[in-house]
């Protein structure tokens, strides 16, 4: 199945609401629909705040990948079809088919490798939606594209929310570099300040002209390491190209504004880009935030209309408030964008002109 | 642990201060041959990931008490570990007071170690296997045994001699005497065995019906049910059976005892076998050792037991062959089951049912059933002796209660009656447990025996009994009774302290009540049961094998008790046991010992029928 991930900038930013809206769209495609999560979802009350959570309801025929002990927890009648061998803290992930519509509780693969295994076990044709958890994104690399949920639970103040979200989206937009033509210095794992200094020494030994040398950074690049890296590279006589494996290397590095600032600083001397892109299909916005007072949580809201309008004005991707009436249309476009951008075909989907006529909004 | 199988484990507290849990786990991991690296508290997730990469570990164990922001930090660690490539070969788990598997899954961890996790469970996770039996919390539970190691030898020779004299007199008196209750017991045993052999029970049942009265007679004659009672439907019984099966498949709960040998019993008797099973499942969930069936008071005053599965009874769950079988089927594998038969006109038959349907214990007492339980002394002496013979036949231990104290009968008199019944029980080949009250009874209140503390009087009872005979002791019933108030915390605490005192004094078992038992004004709630069990577990954990030291006053009270018991027994030996019951030797009407009337005049000579 082609998979779309729904990740959030934080907990309570509207991932599940986005997921259920996408689920409705997917159900109208006429192709098999799959559903899983990289965390745990579908419970009545939030584990931490105790506030009610949105339900995850599936129509009959939906493929559900969840931990075996949860098959009978919801109201949907799930018939297990096969195990996957992928373990979670709740039990093994099994593939099941909803024989009757109803609510499901999801606990799916926690890692990208696990998610790939689960996706491979699903029917070849169709669309699978993958729910996120907290602000976790890394396993979503196993999907073909991401819908990002953000909102007041991430940053309460609108200017800060807009700025951080815009910076995060900017990271997704980094260009993909061609394969390296010259020598490469490669780092893996997590970039520590010490690693940054050692990389600088290695680059210095190579010497050479700008554009011939490339620093390839796999793994995570925290801002502490990135700051040192910027510092030591500025002291080098040459300016190597800097390539990050994927957007997660950057997105998980720290506050997006700070990461963007450091990348721009690096970009003043070097070409900076990614080894492979990862499409950000849309951003959904949620005015809700858990308002804590005296250890208790109550629902709080910022101005939803303003949030949506200003977010849409500042981002180069579709912005949706999934509770609004036009959300379904936009989400249809999102699916169409994924198909046209990645030249993916979803077997069984009626490829109507409406899907193909939507121009990619990625810039 | 071979070198190849040994793992490298990084332990990291996300907590700014606490790392005790991880240190305990580290000790277990190192003892199992694994290499550990313990990071100091409050290291950022990025540095933990860096350390895991640097040390090339196989497993990362994090600990943290979860709050809103902390969960985000833990989830961030999982994400960083994934993006850094760590998750391709490293498994991660998180532990802490608020950690549950669902939360661990949401945060992206492979396993959760919540409260009560044993270090061995963490070792099993590191080694990539399921915890072995005995490694999980509660998994070490085994079915306890009611098989006392006591010798029943008398340390007080004169009391032993007097008891033997009284027993011989009682057995001689009872020889050839019969009652409808004894005959029904024989018929019930015959009916059960005939049914099992596939034979007709019709004739036996007709004969049985002739020996009934009141509600039982109406039932056998016309099928009438006592007010309020209704039959359970097949669907209801099927549902509770499924529920019990699911509950029995769940892991054992937390340990109740902390190395003590004292078994903890509590009672059920909601009036409905289905609710009883649900209550028993709660009790089992908190690892009670045994449960006690409470039946309605009218069952003791009616000749005959009903047949069928019935619910909606008040004041206990009606004893029928079917009700007992359904409850037995719902019991968990670890749970001991006592079916009381101590006070009424169906005493002997109840022991037959208990024995036939797999009970582990019963309760028999001629003295209490006569003087405070409402049954005629002569009748209960005949039925009680038959019941003790059945108990011996079925190898059912039984406790011999001294509830006379609750009526105001002084302890030395109540104990004398208890010792007589227990001695006769031994003569008949049985295994009686002595059951002194551990409560604030009228004697203690009137004489101020518990003004200084609640330890001395109880300790004196145990000391006195131990000076007399080496017999198993099972205080009750329940311990702490009459010390409860409407305050569930207070009631739980006082129950727990009494249970701990019993354990400290080395008794074989205690019976406890739920925290709302005395003041519920209606059904006992599951929450109150958990209150008491949790409190008892904490008290037993607190004292462990430490001992509570009674003051010298306990010795003095014990001397007084032994002396009083001897005097009472001397008098009983003079007049005979049954006459002693009528004449107030074992508790006078002024003291609250009223000879019961139910079944009066129903004893006849064997040849008379």
Report on this structure:
The complex is a heterodimer of chains A (363) and B (609). Chain A is 31% helix and 26% strand. Chain A has 10 helices and 19 strands. Chain A has helices at residues 15-27, 112-121, 158-172, 193-206, 223-234, 247-251, 256-267, 304-314, 327-342, 353-356; strands at residues 2-8, 33-37, 40-41, 57-58, 63-67, 77-87, 92-100, 102-103, 106-107, 127-131, 145-151, 184-187, 214-217, 241-244, 272-274, 280-286, 288-293, 296-301, 319-320. In chain A, the strands form 5 sheets. A 9-stranded mixed β-sheet of chain A has the order 6-7-5-2-10-1-11-16-19, sandwiched between helices. A 4-stranded parallel β-sheet of chain A has the order 12-13-14-15. With 609 residues, chain B is α/β, with parallel strands linked by helices. In chain B, 47% of the residues lie in helices and 10% in strands. Chain B has 24 helices and 16 strands. Chain B has helices spanning 20-31, 45-54, 68-83, 101-107, 119-126, 157-174, 180-196, 202-210, 214-222, 234-249, 273-285, 298-301, 321-330, 347-356, 366-371, 377-393, 404-407, 411-427, 442-447, 456-468, 488-504, 526-543, 552-575, 577-583, and strands at 8-13, 35-38, 59-63, 91-95, 111-113, 177-178, 230-231, 263-268, 290-293, 310-311, 336-340, 361-363, 398-401, 432-435, 509-512, 604-605. The longest helix of chain B is centred in the C-terminal third of the chain and has 24 residues, at 552-575. Chain B is elongated and about 95 Å long. Chain B starts with 7 loop residues before the first strand and ends with a strand. Chain A binds chain B through residues 10-11, 38-41, 43, 47-49, 67, 87-90, 107, 110-113, 133-139, 188-190, 192, 218-220, 222, 224, 248-249, 252, 290, 292, and chain B through 46, 49-50, 53, 66-68, 71-72, 75-76, 78-80, 82-88, 93, 100-112. Chain B: It comes from Caldinitratiruptor microaerophilus. Chain B: GO terms for molecular function: cobalamin binding; metal ion binding. Chain B: Residues 588-609 are annotated as: Disordered. Chain B: This is B12-binding domain-containing protein.
């Amino acid at each position: 199945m082609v998979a779309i991930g729904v990740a959030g900038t934080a907990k309570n930013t509207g991932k599940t609401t986005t997921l259920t809206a996408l689920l409705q769209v997917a159900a109208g495609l006429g192709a098999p629909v799959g559903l899983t999560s990289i965390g745990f979802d579908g419970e009545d009350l939030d584990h931490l705040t105790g506030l009610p959570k949105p339900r995850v309801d599936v129509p009959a025929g939906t493929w559900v990948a969840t931990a075996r002990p949860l098959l009978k927890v919801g109201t949907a009648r799930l018939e297990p079809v096969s195990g996957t061998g992928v373990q979670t803290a709740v039990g093994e992930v099994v593939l099941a088919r909803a024989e009757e519509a109803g609510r499901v509780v999801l606990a799916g693969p926690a890692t990208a490798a696990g998610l790939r295994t689960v996706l491979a076990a699903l029917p070849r044709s169709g669309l699978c939606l993958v729910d996120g958890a907290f602000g976790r994104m890394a396993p979503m690399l196993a999907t073909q594209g991401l819908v990002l949920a953000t909102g007041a639970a991430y940053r309460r103040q609108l200017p800060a929310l807009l700025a951080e979200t815009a910076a995060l989206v900017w990271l997704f937009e980094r260009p993909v570099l061609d394969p390296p033509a010259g020598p490469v210095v490669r780092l893996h794992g997590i970039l520590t300040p010490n690693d940054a200094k050692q990389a600088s020494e290695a680059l210095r030994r190579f010497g050479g002209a700008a554009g011939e040398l490339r620093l390839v950074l796999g793994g995570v690049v925290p801002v502490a390491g990135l700051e040192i890296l910027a510092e030591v590279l500025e002291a080098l006589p040459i300016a190597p190209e800097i390539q990050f494996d994927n957007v997660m290397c950057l997105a998980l590095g720290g506050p997006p504004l700070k990461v963007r600032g450091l990348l721009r600083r690096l970009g003043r001397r070097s070409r900076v880009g990614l080894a492979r892109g990862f499409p950000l299909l849309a951003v959904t916005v949620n005015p809700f935030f858990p308002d804590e007072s005296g250890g208790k949580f109550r629902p709080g809201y910022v101005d939803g209309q303003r949030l949506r309008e200003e977010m849409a004005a500042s981002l180069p991707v579709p912005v949706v408030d999934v509770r609004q009436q036009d959300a379904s249309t936009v989400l249809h476009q999102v699916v169409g964008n994924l198909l046209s951008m990645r030249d993916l075909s979803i077997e069984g989907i009626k490829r109507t002109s409406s899907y193909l006529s939507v121009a990619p909004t990625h810039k | 642990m071979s070198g190849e199988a040994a793992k490298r484990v990084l332990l990291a507290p996300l907590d700014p201060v606490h790392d005790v849990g991880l240190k305990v786990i580290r000790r277990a991991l190192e003892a199992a041959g694994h290499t550990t690296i313990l990071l100091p508290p409050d290291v950022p997730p990025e540095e933990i990931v860096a350390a895991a990469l640097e040390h090339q570990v196989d497993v990362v164990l994090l600990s943290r008490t979860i709050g809103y922001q902390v969960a985000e930090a833990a989830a961030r660690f999982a994400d960083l570990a994934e993006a850094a490539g760590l998750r391709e070969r490293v498994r991660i788990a998180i532990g802490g007071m608020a950690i549950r598997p669902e939360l661990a899954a949401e945060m992206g961890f492979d396993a959760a170690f919540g409260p009560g996790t044993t270090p061995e469970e963490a070792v099993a996770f590191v080694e990539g296997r399921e915890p072995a039996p005995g490694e999980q919390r509660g998994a070490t539970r085994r079915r306890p045994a009611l098989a006392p190691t006591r010798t029943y030898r008398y340390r007080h020779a004169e009391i032993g001699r007097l008891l033997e004299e009284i027993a011989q007199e009682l057995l001689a008196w009872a020889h050839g005497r019969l009652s409808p209750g004894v005959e029904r017991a024989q018929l019930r045993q015959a009916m059960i065995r005939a049914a099992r052999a596939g034979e007709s029970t019709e004739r036996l049942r007709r004969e049985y019906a002739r020996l009934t009265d009141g509600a039982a007679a109406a039932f056998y004659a016309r099928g009438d049910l006592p007010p309020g009672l209704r039959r359970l439907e097949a669907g209801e019984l099927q549902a509770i059976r499924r529920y019990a099966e699911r509950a029995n498949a769940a892991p054992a709960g937390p340990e109740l005892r902390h190395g003590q040998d004292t078994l903890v019993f509590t009672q059920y008797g909601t009036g409905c076998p289905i609710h009883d099973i649900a209550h028993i499942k709660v009790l089992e969930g908190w690892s009670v050792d045994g449960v006690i069936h409470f039946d309605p008071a009218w069952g003791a005053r009616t000749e005959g037991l009903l047949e069928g599965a019935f619910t909606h009874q008040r004041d206990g769950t009606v004893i029928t062959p079917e009700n007992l079988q359904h409850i037995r089927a719902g019991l968990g594998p670890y749970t001991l089951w006592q079916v009381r038969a101590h006070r009424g006109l169906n005493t002997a038959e109840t022991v037959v049912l208990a024995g036939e349907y797999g009970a582990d214990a019963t309760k028999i007492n001629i003295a209490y059933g006569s003087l405070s339980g409402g049954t005629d002394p002569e009748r209960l002496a005949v039925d009680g002796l038959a019941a003790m013979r059945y108990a011996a036949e079925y190898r059912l231990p039984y406790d011999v209660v001294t509830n006379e104290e609750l009526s105001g009968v002084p302890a030395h008199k109540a104990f004398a009656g208890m010792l007589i019944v227990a001695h006769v029980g031994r003569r008949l080949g049985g295994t009686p447990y002595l059951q002194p009250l551990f409560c604030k009874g009228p004697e203690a209140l009137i004489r101020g025996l518990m003004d200084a503390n609640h330890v001395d009087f109880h300790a004196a009872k145990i000391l006195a009994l131990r000076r007399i005979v080496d017999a198993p002791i099972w205080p009750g019933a329940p311990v702490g009774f009459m010390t409860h108030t409407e305050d569930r915390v207070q009631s739980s605490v006082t129950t727990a302290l009494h249970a701990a005192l019993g354990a400290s004094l080395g008794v074989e078992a205690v019976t406890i009540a739920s925290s709302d038992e005395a003041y519920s004004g209606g059904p006992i709630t599951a929450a109150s049961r958990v209150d008491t069990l949790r409190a008892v577990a904490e008290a037993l954990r607190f004292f462990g094998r430490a001992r509570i030291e009674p003051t010298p006053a306990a010795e003095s009270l014990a001397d007084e008790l032994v002396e009083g018991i001897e005097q009472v027994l001397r008098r009983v030996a003079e007049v005979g046991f049954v006459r002693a019951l009528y004449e107030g030797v074992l508790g006078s009407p002024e003291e609250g010992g009223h000879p019961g009337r139910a079944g009066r005049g129903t004893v006849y000579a064997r040849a008379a029928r």
